[in-house]
């Protein structure tokens, strides 16, 4: 009945009273759809730092991850086992994995594009890996030099080999809403790749707005299609902030029932194959949103701010997180 009332209010002449009633209805139904708790999957050390042009020492990477490990985060994507030719910034992946202080209850997944990457990751002690496909043929060919179907066949081999070694696998669908080469992506195409990754055994599939060109409407359409073929419990949201839409897209993801959010401390990131793509949605900004919505996350904001301050100073620039800038300025007051 309340739902019908809210719909009816839309067509009533707008007065102060009807505006208030409509706002109350929207707030009630939005709150009713939001999850009670979420998991943040930190991608700063990998997806964030891979796009940096300046040299970043192994010491800095290790200290950054150690600071994040002390914050209550349960998943920190530590590095990548991709050819140094393509991602030179993360050529020290094995050293990073050997030196970080791994905390009990914290997972340290790494990115592996192929069997060689998986083998190197396992040698380095990785217990979880991530693979990445794309919903755009153009992006797939630019990013991993093969078609979508070819990439999925390649990933089947990786997932099968990982499972034999007891290694969990997470999947990414890049360009799930927008492609830097071909524009808007058909939601059904994104859903099809997600379904394939899910079927081959990925424990979770992260739907990525790689270019940051998506809006909440795009995200809603993409997840609506994807939820037809993959359970909400096995989906995650990965948003970039190129056009300032990342927090709005995260909120839309929450409304769709998504309970795992990929975030990057200090808003680090971008994409080497998506020119102009800005950083990932900042962990600090998402924490501020979640606290405002009363959604549990289990992360110590102050510890995240310490990590944000450290990596920003190491890179010689201010944090890209608006929340971090505000909170850190209060520390100085």
Structural features:
disordered N terminus, 333 residues, nine-stranded parallel sheet, two-stranded antiparallel ribbon, 11 strands, alpha/beta
| Helix and strand pattern | HHEHHEEHEHEHHEEEHEHEHEHHH
Number of helices: 14
Mean pLDDT: 90
Task: Specify the biggest β-sheet.
Answer: 9 strands, parallel
Percent of residues in helices:
40-55%
What is the CA-CA span between the terminal residues? 50 Å
Give a verbal description of the structure:
47% of the residues lie in helices and 13% in strands. The strands form 2 sheets. A 9-stranded parallel beta sheet has the order 2-1-11-10-9-6-5-4-3. Strands 7-8 form a two-stranded antiparallel sheet. It has helices at 2-9, 16-33, 44-48, 58-69, 93-99, 115-123, 137-144, 148-164, 187-199, 216-226, 246-255, 283-293, 301-315, 322-332, and strands spanning 39-42, 75-76, 79-80, 110-111, 128-134, 168-174, 178-179, 183-184, 204-209, 235-239, 260-263. With 333 residues, the chain is of the alpha/beta class. The protein is globular. Mean pLDDT is 90; it is low at 1-14 and 18-29. Helix 1 (2-9) crosses helix 2, helix 4 crosses helix 5 (93-99) and helix 10 packs parallel to helix 11. The longest helix is centred in the N-terminal third of the chain and has 18 residues, at 16-33. Helix 6 links the parallel strand 4 (110-111) and strand 5. The chain is built from 14 helices and 11 strands.
């Amino acid at each position: 009945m309340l739902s019908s009332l809210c719909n009816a209010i839309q067509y009533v002449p707008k007065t102060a009273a009807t505006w208030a009633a409509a706002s109350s209805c929207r707030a009630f139904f939005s709150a009713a759809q939001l999850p009670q708790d979420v998991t943040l999957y930190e991608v700063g050390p990998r997806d964030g730092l891979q796009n940096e042009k300046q040299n970043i020492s192994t010491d800095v990477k290790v200290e950054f991850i150690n600071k994040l490990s002390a914050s209550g985060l349960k998943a920190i994507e530590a590095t990548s086992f991709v050819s140094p030719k393509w991602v030179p910034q993360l050529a020290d992946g094995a050293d990073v994995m050997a030196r970080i202080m791994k905390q009990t209850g914290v997972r340290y997944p790494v990115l592996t594009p192929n069997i060689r990457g998986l083998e190197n990751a396992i040698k380095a002690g990785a217990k979880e890996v991530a693979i990445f496909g794309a919903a755009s043929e153009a992006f797939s060919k630019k990013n991993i030099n093969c078609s979508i179907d070819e990439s999925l066949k390649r990933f089947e081999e990786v997932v099968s080999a990982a499972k034999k070694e007891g290694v969990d696998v997470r999947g990414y669908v890049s360009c799930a809403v927008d492609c830097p080469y071909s524009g808007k992506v058909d939601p059904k195409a994104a859903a099809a790749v997600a379904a394939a990754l899910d079927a081959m055994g990925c424990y979770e599939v992260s739907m990525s707005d790689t270019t940051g060109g998506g809006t909440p409407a795009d995200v809603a359409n993409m997840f609506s299609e994807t939820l037809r073929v993959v359970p909400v419990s096995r989906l995650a949201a990965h948003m970039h902030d190129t056009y300032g839409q990342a927090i709005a897209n995260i909120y839309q993801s929450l409304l769709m029932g998504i309970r795992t959010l990929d975030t990057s401390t200090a808003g680090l990131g971008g994409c080497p194959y998506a020119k102009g793509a800005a950083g990932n949605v900042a962990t600090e900004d998402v924490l501020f949103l979640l606290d405002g919505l009363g959604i549990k996350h289990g992360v110590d904001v102050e510890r995240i701010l310490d990590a944000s301050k450290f990596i920003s100073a190491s890179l010689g620039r201010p944090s890209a997180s608006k929340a971090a800038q505000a909170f850190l300025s209060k520390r100085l007051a």
